[in-house]
Amino acid sequence: MADGTAPEGSTTIAQGQLRSFVERIERLEEEKAALAADIKEVYAEAKGNGFDTKVLRKVISLRKKDTAERQEEEAMLELYLHALGMLG
User: Fold this and answer.
1) What phi and psi, each to the nearest 5 degrees, are found at residue 85?
2) 81 Cβ contact partners less than 8 Å away, ≥ 6 residues apart
């Protein structure tokens, strides 16, 4: 409109869209929280069975990377450790 406001019908549509987005995000946040709780339980179970969860988390992180990226990271780590005299 000439005064810079949107027509009333489009405001209603925009409000409906906004409400839809907010509700979808809220629902996904709830699902994310539930998944995080499930993952926490699995780590607790692994720990209860004698597994080191810190190492387990690192394994999960490494499995997410492709081989080249993982090899590059490992090479850089080795280089840094060697520079600090932490490797033979």
Assistant:
1) 75, 25
2) 87
